[in-house]
């Protein structure tokens, strides 16, 4: 039975493995909202023992004009949080005026490709450093999104998810961060988002604030609400009805204003909610993470008093800070981060193989055979055997240690019919009672008996002067006819306006300007399915000579997703 344990200090060579999320030693399950925290606020987050921070990535600030980017503030932010070992959930929002004929901030982008490119550039720039990306904030409220549910799904969620996964396959895609308001029809929104776009989401995220200042209100709405006619369901019931149950759910906003209810009541709200969800005898442990709103108060004349500390520069700690800190320090929590996996891009029928998956224990418990912890694997394909090796007697996986778990895969004849079918593997750690926890692994394989294409030459990076022209090329071996389709920053290209050959192995670009700068790759498809070449950067500047072709470039392995 193959199962290998190693500590974070052990050397680990990724090799052919697919790396997933960014790691941070000692990060806890618990989170907080902090917008764009400065150094003193970030220090207080660490002092509280908080492991996750939800920050704002404001599109209109980063790209104030089309193709003009100002990343400096966010470069400093990511450096600041990463240096403190914090895990980062970055939420996109706020439409620039130039990108919409609607309202600035909440308007629907006129060109979805502009939004998709922005998502790609952000996820690519901070690849391996931002753990999770949120696609918009409270789109069921007009203040944040003036479009329809269908527009949110088709224009924002699906293109945004495609861009993030192309730029950083290891980052989690989170949505829809709805406000739990009947006036915002949150239940209709969440039902439609999950039913139409569950393949594009790794974590369902939600916001809920109490109307009268008690934790029981939040628990009731999310977990225990009765099924009554003409009322919205509980979140638990809706997740079960949509088939999401057992997959990750995060409460990414909840809180209480100390100016309205008092600091003692605010602290009591934190304690009661945390005990209910994460205490020794939790009623509702199916929520994986919680992000309280907010870390610090707004400076007067702001009336914002959701903070667990005061406003800058003093940042006086409230009793809520100590209540949260104390709970975190004493909490007994199962949590996990799947770091690497080696599921193949293509698999044929009647195959038997063992696949390693590396998991880090990010909780406070120790995993052993006696505790019953295991890697829970699921797929919808009939006839397949997909089982992870159990923990053998004697092995212990302590907090901050990693373990390599081998998964046995045995495929049956393709049940979905020719030419190929996409199979999704869903994996999470689970405790002795079978309750799943931690970050998810969603691997996609193409099940086919055809031979996939092999890329011998990938596109090469190039630097070109403005006004000049250049080209990208690929060389592919395939036993069946091949189709080519080029992308720039995850957005499909078409011939015209300086682009020729978008559907051939040679992509020619002329009249190069600032809009040409970016990452180019090619999606190559044959009867087996699709692969994506390694991306190549076109940089606007002084031209450099091309390197000779190199036929030893490693093969592409990314699989395109199908709907």
What does this structure look like?
- The structure is a single chain.
- The chain is α/β, with parallel strands linked by helices.
- The protein folds into three domains: 29-330, TIM Barrel; 336-447, Sandwich (Immunoglobulin-like), CATH 2.60.40; 454-559, Immunoglobulins (Immunoglobulin-like, Sandwich), CATH 2.60.40.
- The protein contains eleven helices and 30 strands.
- An eight-stranded parallel barrel has the order 3-4-5-6-7-8-9-10. Strands 20, 23, 24, 27, 28, 29 and 30 form a seven-stranded mixed sheet that branches. Strands 1, 2, 11, 13, 15 and 16 form a six-stranded antiparallel sheet that branches.
- Mean pLDDT is 90; it is low at 6-18, 21-26 and 544-563.
Rg estimate, integer Å: 24 Å
Total of domains: 3
* CATH architecture descriptor of the largest domain: Alpha-Beta Barrel
Q: How does the major sheet shape up?
A: 8 strands, parallel, barrel
Number of strands: 30
Strand order of the largest sheet: 3-4-5-6-7-8-9-10
Count of alpha and pi helical runs? 11
Low-confidence stretches: 6-18, 21-26, 544-563
Distance linking N and C termini? 37 Å
CATH superfamily caption of the largest domain: Glycosidases
Helix percentage range = 10-25%
Shape annotation:
globular
Structural class assignment: alpha/beta
% residues in beta strands: 25-35%
In CATH, the topology of the largest domain is named TIM Barrel
**CATH structural class of the largest domain:** Alpha Beta
Would you kindly provide a brief summary of this structure?
This protein is an alpha/beta fold.
């Amino acid at each position: 039975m193959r199962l290998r344990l190693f500590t974070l200090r052990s050397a680990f060579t990724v090799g052919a493995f697919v790396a997933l999320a960014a790691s941070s030693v000692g990060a806890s399950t618990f989170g907080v909202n902090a917008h764009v925290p400065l150094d003193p606020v970030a220090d207080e987050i660490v002092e509280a023992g908080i492991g996750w921070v939800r920050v704002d990535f404001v599109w209109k600030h980063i790209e104030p004009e089309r193709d003009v980017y100002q990343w400096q503030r966010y470069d400093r932010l990511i450096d600041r949080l990463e240096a403190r070992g914090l895990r980062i959930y970055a939420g996109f929002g706020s439409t620039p005026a130039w990108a919409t004929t609607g309202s600035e901030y909440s308007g629907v982008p006129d060109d979805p490709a502009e939004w998709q490119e922005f998502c790609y550039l952000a996820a690519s720039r901070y690849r391996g450093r931002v753990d999770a990306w949120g696609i918009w904030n409270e789109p069921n409220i007009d203040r944040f999104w003036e479009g329809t549910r269908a527009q949110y799904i088709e224009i924002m969620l699906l293109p945004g998810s495609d861009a993030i996964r192309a730029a950083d396959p290891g980052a989690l895609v989170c949505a829809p961060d709805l406000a739990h308001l009947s006036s915002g029809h949150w239940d209709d929104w969440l039902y439609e988002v999950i039913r139409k776009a569950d393949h594009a989401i790794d974590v369902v995220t939600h916001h809920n604030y109490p109307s009268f200042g008690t934790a029981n209100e939040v628990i009731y709405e999310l977990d225990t609400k009765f099924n009554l006619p003409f009322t919205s369901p509980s979140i638990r019931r809706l997740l079960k009805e949509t088939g999401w149950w057992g997959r990750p759910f995060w409460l990414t906003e909840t809180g209480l204003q100390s100016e309205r209810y008092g600091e003692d009541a605010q602290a009591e709200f934190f304690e009661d909610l945390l005990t209910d969800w994460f205490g020794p005898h939790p009623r509702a442990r199916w929520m994986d993470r919680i992000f309280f709103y907010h870390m610090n108060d707004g400076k007067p004349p702001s009336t914002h008093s959701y903070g667990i500390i005061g406003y800058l520069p003093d940042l006086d700690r409230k009793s809520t800070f100590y209540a949260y800190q104390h709970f975190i320090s004493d909490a007994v929590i199962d949590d996990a981060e799947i770091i690497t996996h080696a599921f193949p891009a293509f698999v044929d029928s009647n195959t038997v193989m063992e696949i390693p998956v590396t998991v880090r224990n990010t909780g406070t418990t120790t995993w052993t055979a006696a505790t019953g912890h295991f890697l829970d694997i699921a797929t919808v394909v009939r006839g397949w055997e997909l089982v992870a090796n159990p923990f053998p007697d004697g092995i212990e996986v302590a907090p901050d240690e990693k373990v390599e778990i081998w998964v046995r895969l045995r495929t049956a004849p393709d049940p979905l019919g020719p030419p190929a079918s996409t199979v999704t593997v869903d994996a999470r750690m689970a405790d002795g009672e079978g309750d799943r926890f931690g970050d998810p692994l969603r691997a996609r394989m193409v099940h086919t008996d055809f031979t996939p294409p092999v890329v011998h030459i990938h596109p090469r990076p190039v630097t070109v002067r403005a006004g000049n022209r250049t080209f990208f090329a690929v060389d592919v071996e395939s036993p069946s006819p091949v189709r080519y389709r080029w992308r720039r920053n995850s957005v499909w290209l078409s011939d015209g306006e300086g682009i020729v050959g978008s559907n051939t192995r040679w992509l020619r670009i002329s009249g190069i300007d600032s809009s040409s700068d970016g990452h180019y790759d090619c999606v190559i498809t044959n009867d087996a399915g699709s692969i994506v070449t390694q991306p190549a950067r076109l940089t606007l500047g002084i031209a450099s000579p091309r390197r000779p072709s190199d036929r030893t470039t490693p093969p592409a392995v990314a699989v395109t997703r199908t709907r």
